[in-house]
Automatic annotation (TrEMBL):
Family designation: Belongs to the THOC5 family.
Coiled coil start-end: 35-62
Stretch list, region Disordered: 1-26
A Pfam entry, by short name: FmiP_Thoc5
Organism placement in taxonomy: Eukaryota, Fungi, Dikarya, Basidiomycota, Agaricomycotina
Subcellular location: Nucleus
One GO biological process term: mRNA export from nucleus
Protein name per its UniProtKB record: Fms interacting protein
InterPro entries referenced in this protein's UniProt entry, alphabetically: THO_Thoc5
This protein's GO CC annotations: THO complex part of transcription export complex
Originating species: Scleroderma citrinum Foug A
Ranges of biased composition (kind: Basic and acidic residues): 1-25
Length: 207
């Protein structure tokens, strides 16, 4: 018996035995009954084989889909990784405006900044130190800007008062000039109405 026959189902072997010419004297009815049972067995085996094939095909399909999905997820992760690496490199090469802002020196920051902004942990952390220096610089500039605005308002108030005083002085001066002019005119009229006596009149050659 060859390898294919040795691996076959016992039902097939029994069918071969039933059709063996050596057993031609066996009762045909018994042969048909046994053959029908064997055929039913073969049909069952065929259905089971088909079901197993479908199961294996579905399992293969599911495994392939899972592998494809895993591969796609891996590609997405690699794409995201490359994207993040490019963004990180852009951030590293980005020239922020704070690099051009004149800041208080570290020594000035240590002297002027609030104590909570210049602790040992902050001074040992370059990134946090820069953030605190920027915050301190912003607060100082806002404070100085408020002071500048107050000084501008004070200056405008002084200029306003100066203009008012100048206007008052000019008004008083105008009034004094008007009074002096009026007094001069009155004096002339008085002199015209009341002439000086002859003894009071000036003589020629008198000084």
């Amino acid at each position: 018996m060859d390898q294919r026959q040795s691996d076959s189902d016992p039902a097939i072997d029994k069918l071969r035995q039933l059709v063996d010419p050596k057993k031609s004297n066996v009762d045909s009815t018994a042969v048909r009954v046994e053959a029908a049972a064997l055929v039913a067995r073969l049909k069952t085996l065929n259905r089971n084989a088909n079901a197993a094939t479908r199961t294996h095909k579905q399992a293969t399909t599911d495994a392939r889909q899972e592998m494809d999905q895993t591969h796609l997820s891996l590609q997405n992760l690699l794409y995201e990784k490359r994207h993040l690496e490019r963004e990180i490199e852009k951030c590293r090469q980005f020239a922020s405006i704070y690099q051009d802002i004149p800041l208080h020196s570290v020594e000035e920051f240590r002297e002027l900044a609030p104590s909570e902004a210049r602790t040992h942990d902050v001074l040992d952390n370059p990134h946090q130190l820069m953030l605190n220096r920027l915050s301190f610089e912003l607060a100082e500039r806002q404070r100085l800007d408020l002071k500048r605005k107050d000084l501008i308002l004070h200056k405008e108030e002084l200029l306003k008062q100066s203009r008012i005083k100048s206007t008052t002085v000019e008004s008083v001066k105008s009034q004094i000039d008007a009074l002096m002019k009026t007094a001069t005119e009155i004096q002339k009229k008085v002199d015209e109405l009341v002439p000086l006596p002859p003894s009071a009149a000036p003589t020629p050659g008198s000084s």
